[in-house]
Structure formats: structure tokens, C-alpha cells
């Protein structure tokens, strides 16, 4: 392949002067561009009958005058082509001999004197048409991974096929895509990003599909079988695999992480990212790796997730939502996906009451991310799912998207922490500090899934069974590692801690607190100390409760399952109904006589 040198750039004014020497990434890689006038891509003779070259219509250069391009040639131009806001003064012969569309537009009415054409739907705009015109005039052009998509779409639009001329622009761009782009990881990413601005032409020509398949195949390839290039000695790999050709150094001894491709794929817009992830899924990528890639992508384009990592501040917990609802807002930054250069540096800071158009864009983006999440359980950590749920509540996403996040979070609720469940509610929709309803729905999903799993485990043989041939086989590996209610007990402890936290909210209603406390079955709690602590906190923060409501709350706990310290605290608790204090006395006497005291499971009651 020809390498553009300084002399070549001076000879061909159409070539960007930046493509010179070591500073040019294309020259350095010696892969990413194609001089279509090089000997490799000229028509070659076959057999004993050499193909005669046609008379060249080469012009010396193009001159730009404002919004007008003029072919600098001795003959006066006889064709005016308008593309967007640019006008091209050209000659019919070199263009009509290579472009079927221009040929048809000029001679469609058999008016050979027609000298003005307007191309409204030209893919790639004036820049792509300029390169195509230079190609028709015989001026050398450089095809790179940056402009090959626009050139390929322009060639298809102008119908520059082999039927009109051998080695026309369609065949040259196709050859470059197949031989250069699809064999390179970096070029495949670059071309796929360029396709984002040339839809639906890029999809119609299968460029998006080919690049996505190429990226998926490379992402699923075992990194140990790839040679990696380095920018300099001693540095980490530049994460650009060379799959055909040798590299100067290998990282087999250093080890390549499985997420080496996350950062490059994360630069794609949402539509392209979905296509790539579907292709990767079809290749058989592990669901947990795919889930990590989606989470990486979400953090790349929704930095608000990082702002939601920390639990709500103590000031927000201690303040009354009715006196200062503005504290219940969560501001975050969202990077737009409108263009590559703009998306890298531009950001938009919004809150719940921000610009409507921005919220719509953010909402659609979050809903798209949820659609890409792998369906398998544990493919995404529950902490990430709950952060997405927080953001979905703030953005008021569709009901289906929110239900999906609640169901997925509920299925893994036993892996969550208290800070994960502290989901702020929107100030303009609720007076409570936390969204208790969302947590309650997650708990309902967990209980349903746990019930289904418990039933399925009962159907599994506990020791041994027989295969289809009647032979005895060991089935001990199918037994659950933990007891059937272990996950439920973990969730019960978590929910009790959550109840104690939300009980501090003076605007939390009695019905919501009671419904969440009673959602768990009795056998899921090994001790009622956590529930007692939550009830006592609720009674302290809601002194206006009626006697009937206080009795209903206290009936939810079993005094016989309280620890010695809890019983001692309850016996002196004036906030409890007298009947509960009387019930605690026998338990306290029994515990004192048996001297049962477990310091590791005690709470500090106040």
C-alpha cells in the first residue's frame, strides 16, 4: 500500500498537509489510509490483451471561492451542482462517465444542455461530494477510516459502480473496508462512530453490521491469543489488538484484563452500542462481562450515577421534608451523545426541575441502557441496579422501565446494603424523604422469587438419584449450599435496619411503615431486636399516634424473640403500651435465669 510522503502531499494539493511524517497517525500505523492512485489500485492488464487506459480528465486542482468550488481547468464549466449550501462548477464528461445518478439527472429529459443539478439528499454533504468529484477528475484522494463511510455512501448515492468504470469508487471503498477496516479494532470503532451520522445509508450498505460483527468477534477473542502493540517501552498496552500481523511486543506475561474493550465501545452512541452488544451476545460472551460493559457505559454517559453513590446526607435525614424540600433534589451531569467532538467535552447539569428537552433525552437514554442489560440474574451488581432505579425515579422514566429495575433489584435484594436502599423520593411528588414504595416493591419481587426458588429446590434430590438409564448418580452437587431461608433472613435484617432509618422521617405514614414491616414472614426473623428498634424509633418521632395505632405496631413483634438488652430497654420504655411492657416481664425473667446474652447481636437502644 502506498504511503503518503511529504513529496506526495506537495504534488497532490487535495491531501491534507497534516498527513505528513511521524505526527500523522495514518502514516505511523501504515494501515488506516489508501491512496487510490497507487499502483495497487490502478487497472491492471490481463493476459495478452492489455486494457487500454481511457483519456484522463485530470484537472490541476480545485479552487474554493466562498461557498463555491471551481474546477481549475482550461475548459469552461458546463455543469453546476448544488449540495446543501455549496455550489460546484464542474464539467459533464468526467462526472457522467463515472456517476450513474448524475448521468440520469442530466439526460433524464433528453436535454443535453441542462447545466444545473441540486442534490438535496447527498450523504456526507459537500465534503463527501468534493472527494467523489476529485476522484472523477483523477485527482488522488486519500481514503481513511474517518472518511470511508461518507465516501462509500456517497458512491452508492451517485451510483459510481463497476458498470460505468472499472475500479470505480464503490469498489475501492468496499475494498478498503474489507481489507483494512474490518481487520483493525481501532478502525472498526472509528468507522462505526462515523456511521452514526450517516444513517440509514450505513445500515442499508451493511457497514454497521460488518463493523459490529468485527468488534464483537475481537471482543470475544481470548486476549491471551492476541498480540498487543505498545506506544513505548515500559507502558501499558494501548488496548489495540493486532489480529493479522506481528506486533513488536506481547503481553502474554503481563495479563490482559477482560474489560480491555469497554472504554472503546463506550464511546459509541446508544444505538450503535446496542447493535454491538447484541452482536457480542450472539458470539456467546459471558453475561457478567456484558453486564459490566453496560454498567461502564452507563457511568460513561450518566455521571449522575457517581453522584448517587453516596447515601443521603445526615442533614437531609434530619431535616423535615415539609420545611425544606429543595434539599431533596439530586443534581447530576449528563453528557450528550450528539456528535463525537461535542460529547467529549460538553456536559449538561440538570436537576429534577431542569429543562424539559434535556430530561426527555436523559430519560430515553436511561431507558435504552436498561433494555441492553443482560437478563440473567447477577449479571449486574444490585448496587448498580439500585442506583439506576434512583435515577429512573428522578427522571420519571416509563413505568415499564421502572418495574424492570425494581424486579431485577428485588431478585438480588439479599446482596444489597442499607445505603443502597436509601432512595430519595422526588420532592414534588412525595413529602417523605425516602421512596418507601420502591423498596417495598423490590421486597415483593424478592419474596416471589425466593418462593419459586424454594419450591424448585424441594424438587431436587438431596443425596443421590438415577439417570435416564436407571444408573445411580451422585446429585449432592445440586443441593443448596445454604439453608432455604438464609437469603430471606439476610433480607429481614436489612429491612429492619431500613425501617429504623426511615422511622426518623416525621412525614412517614403509619400505614406505609406497617405494610413494609409486615411484608416479611415471621420465620424470616431470627430475632426481633431490629424490628423493636425500628418501632421504638417510629413511636419517638410520631408522638401523635393513637393508642390503637401504637398497639398495632407493637403486635408485629414477638417479645419472646427479644434479647436480654432489648427486654431490659422495653421494660422501662414509656412509649410502649402497658400491655407490651407486661408481656416483656416474663421474657426478661426467663432470660435472666438462663443468663442468655449474646453481645454480638445487641443494639444500642435510646
From TrEMBL:
PANTHER family: OS12G0117600 PROTEIN. Residues 259-591 form the NPH3 domain. Pathway: Protein modification; protein ubiquitination. SUPFAM superfamilies: POZ domain. It holds the Pfam family NPH3. Residues 77-145 form the BTB domain. The keyword Glycoprotein does not apply. Residues 36-60, 234-254 are annotated as: Disordered. Keywords: Ubl conjugation pathway. This is NPH3 domain-containing protein. One of its GO terms (biological process) is protein ubiquitination. PROSITE patterns: BTB, NPH3.
